[in-house]
Design brief:
Blueprint: H1 19-40, H2 45-58, H3 63-75, H4 79-92, H5 97-109, H6 113-124, H7 131-143, H8 149-159, H9 164-175, H10 179-192, H11 197-209, H12 213-226, H13 231-239, H14 242-254
Length: about 260
C-alpha cells in the first residue's frame, strides 16, 4: 500500500472557508480533472490516477475523482488497492451508484463474485444511471460466462455516445480473452473517435490477439501518427511478425 498512501481519504474539515478560497480551490480541482481526462483518453493510467488524487486535494467532494481513482487502480491491475479505496470512499458517499459499481469491478477482478454482485445490485438501485454501472454489470456477467453481457454493454453505449465507452469495453473483453468481441467494440470506438490515438491502439491490440498482424500494424501506425511517441504502440508494432503473417496470407491464397 506504500505507493498509494498519497491517495486522498480524509474529509475536508474547513467548512467555513472564504468564498475566494472556495473559488480558487474549485478552479484548481477542475484543472486537475481536465488533465486526468486527457491522460485517461491517452491510456496513461498512473498519471491519470495522480491527477485524480490532486483534484481531491483541492475538493474532496468530487465523487467523479473518487470513482476515477478506483477505475485507474483497476486498469493498473492493482485490485486489492482498488477494493480498499472503493470501500473507503463509500464510507464518505454511501449513496453514490458509481462508487458501488467501482467496488463491484474491483471485487470481480479479485474473484469475489458474491460480493461483486451485491455491490453492483447496490449500484443499480441508486438513483439515476450511468454507462459505467452498465459496463460493470456487463463485466460481471462476462466473468460468469453469461451471454447477457452484450445487452449491458449495448445499454452503456446508448447512455453515453463517447468513444471511450466502447473502447474501455473492448479492454474488458480482452481481459477475459475474447478478442473477437473486443474487436467489435474497438471498431466502434475508432468509428466514434477517429482522432483518438488510444482508440486505434486498442483496436490494434484486438487485431494482434487475433493474429491479424498486418491490420494491427496499420492501427498501431495510425495511433503513432495521432500520438507520436506512444510507447505502447511502438512496442506492439515491434512485436508483430509481419513476415509470418504475409506468408500465411499468401499460402492461404495459393491453397485455393
Amino acid at each position: 500500500m506504500a505507493r498509494f498512501q498519497k491517495l486522498e481519504f480524509q474529509p475536508n474539515t474547513q467548512s467555513q472557508a472564504s468564498s475566494e478560497l472556495t473559488s480558487r480551490t474549485s478552479s484548481g480541482a477542475e484543472n486537475w480533472m481536465s488533465r486526468a481526462d486527457v491522460c485517461r483518453r491517452s491510456g496513461h493510467f498512473e498519471t491519470t490516477l495522480q491527477y485524480y488524487s490532486r483534484a481531491l486535494e483541492d475538493d474532496k467532494s468530487l465523487v467523479a475523482a473518487w470513482v476515477g481513482q478506483v477505475q485507474m487502480l483497476v486498469m493498473m491491475q492493482e485490485y486489492p488497492e482498488a477494493e480498499t479505496w472503493s470501500r473507503k470512499s463509500l464510507e464518505l458517499f454511501p449513496a453514490e451508484g458509481d462508487l458501488h459499481a467501482a467496488r463491484a469491478q474491483a471485487l470481480c477482478r479479485l474473484h469475489r463474485t458474491k460480493d461483486a454482485y451485491g455491490a453492483i445490485d447496490a449500484a443499480m438501485h441508486q438513483p439515476g444511471q450511468s454507462a459505467y454501472r452498465w459496463t460493470v454489470r456487463g463485466e460481471l456477467l462476462l466473468a460468469g460466462r453469461q451471454s447477457a453481457e452484450r445487452h449491458c454493454f449495448d445499454k452503456a453505449q446508448q447512455i453515453d455516445a463517447d468513444w471511450l465507452v466502447p473502447t474501455e469495453i473492448a479492454r474488458i473483453y480482452l481481459q477475459y480473452h475474447q478478442p473477437s468481441n473486443a474487436l467489435n467494440r474497438a471498431r466502434l470506438g475508432v468509428e466514434r473517435g477517429p482522432a483518438s490515438g488510444y482508440a486505434w491502439y486498442i483496436q490494434g491490440m484486438c487485431l494482434s490477439e487475433l493474429g491479424m498482424d498486418v491490420q494491427a500494424h496499420k492501427s498501431f501506425r495510425t495511433c503513432l501518427e495521432l500520438c507520436p511517441g506512444h510507447r505502447e504502440a511502438e512496442k506492439s508494432m515491434q512485436s508483430l511478425n509481419l513476415g509470418s503473417s504475409l506468408w500465411k496470407r499468401l499460402r492461404s491464397f495459393w491453397s485455393h
